[in-house]
Amino acid sequence: MAWDILITNIKGLAQVRDSTLTVLSGSAMADLPVIEEAFLAISDGKIADYGEMQSLPNVTADRVIDAKGRFVFPSFVDSHTHLIFAASREEEFVMKIKGASYAEIAASGGGILNSAQKLQHMSEDELFERSLARAQEIIKSGTGAVEIKSGYGLTVADELKMLRIARRIGEETPLKVKTTFLGAHAVPKSHTKSEYIQLVVKEMIPAVAEEKLADYIDVFCEEGFFNTDETELICEEGKKYGMKPRLHANQLHRSGGVQVGVKVNAISVDHLENIGKEEIEALKRGNTIPTALPGAAFFLNLPFPPARDIINAGLPLAIASDYNPGSSPSGNMSLMVALACIKMRMTPEEAFNAATINTAAAMEILETHGSITRGKTANVCITMPIPTLAYLPYSFGSQLVGQVIINGRLIN
User: Fold this and answer.
1) CB proximity list for 162: less than 8 A, separation 6 or greater
2) Regarding beta strands 2-14 and 34-43, do their DSSP bridges make them parallel or antiparallel, or are they unpaired?
3) Structure confidence at residue 340 (pLDDT)
4) pTM of the model
5) Which of 70, 103, 138, 319 is the most exposed place for a label (fewest CB within 10 A)?
6) Ordered structural domains, the chain, with CATH
7) Can you tell me whether residue 290 is helix, strand or coil?
8) pLDDT at res. 106
9) Residue 412 has pLDDT above 80, yes or no
């Protein structure tokens, strides 16, 4: 027998677990198991074995990587992105610098409607090529699994176009991809809100389901967008077609998004920049995973989600990038981990758990991703030489992911 890849002399093999049954919650998030002076063996795209170097079996390997001075950890799982978009929106970035609010930009025809207009005029092939470049970018920075939303189409044809591209990203890259239908992202100017909700419910959801394009359904539950009753209606309709809810909740206001998310048994509620005790108590009554998107809070100068309150309440917390052109134009999960530590007062251990195991749970792929576990998909990152794993979020501006292995194959 010969292994495909053997990584030796690993300074620290992080997130090693014999099994991962569920999310990590509360105080358990502070525990990040690390084997020092370790090896990791990969075969047939799976994690075959690991342990201390002194226990390395006498087995050959097709490729040996000496990781002396380096850390190895499971690839990031990014459970919230808008990876498919037509163009950047740096003009709005300048507007923000000059004092315009998110709501003011949206009201002037910017924001989501801006992205929708650009996307509607772009061919499916060109949009795929632009999105593929972003997918390759996040792979190189250490992401091995990603959720991709629609929501910049806002017509039946363009929402389907986005979701077909998202599926294609999963087929033509090594990324594990889950897709989310977010038709209820904004109301286009061509419709009243009630007309558009009927379009989402009566035409978009059935069309998405017919092509089997979405695993989940999402709604932007926020003042000026969709209220709690509208969110519940859309989610319940999606559930009839097998799409599980996951919601944008409490980004700009205390919108009731968390409570409705728990009510419809959403997999996750994401953003959470504006929550308090009431929302935390609601989360404690359900199984919905609270997910912070620190890149968006940073970029929009919003309050950061209260991570310490969430964790101290015994809840889990996940961290995702929210990669999108308007409010978080970065899919670099190392940066998200750093922001969680710096701005949300999470320890490096908590942040790594939030960006691997808990995001894998939020994508319902914990059986195959999120940890160094025998039999799981061999998605791992090898750092540059660093003194400790905490150095990665500490040195937030540096690219410290040196090599990436996805599905047992060395990418870079």
Assistant:
1) 84, 119, 127, 150, 151, 152, 153
2) antiparallel
3) 98
4) 0.96
5) 103
6) 2-74+371-410 (2.30.40.10), 77-362 (3.20.20.140)
7) strand
8) 76
9) no
What is the chain's length? 412
142-174 pLDDT tens trace = 999 999 999 999 999 999 999 999 999 999 999
User: 288-309: per-residue pLDDT in tens?
Assistant: 999 999 999 999 999 999 999 9
Backbone angles phi, psi at 338, to 5 degrees: -65, -45
SS3 at position 268: strand
CA dihedral 264, 270, 271, 277 (to 10 degrees): 50
Pairing of strands 76-78, 46-52: unpaired
How confident is residue 105, by pLDDT bands cut at 50, 70 and 90?
A: confident
CB 318 within 8 A of CB 268: yes
Q: Name the token pair of 169.
A: 């990203």
Share the mean pLDDT of the chain.
96
Q: How far apart are CA 160 and CA 58, in angstroms?
A: 52
Q: Which residues contact 241 (CB under 8 A, 6 or more apart)?
A: 205, 206, 208, 209
Is the CB of residue 270 less than 8 Å from the CB of residue 246? yes
Q: Which 3 state secondary structure label does DSSP give 119? A: helix
**Residues 376, 46 contacting (CB under 8 angstroms):** yes
- Nearest one of 103, 258, 267, 266 to 186, comparing CA atoms: 103
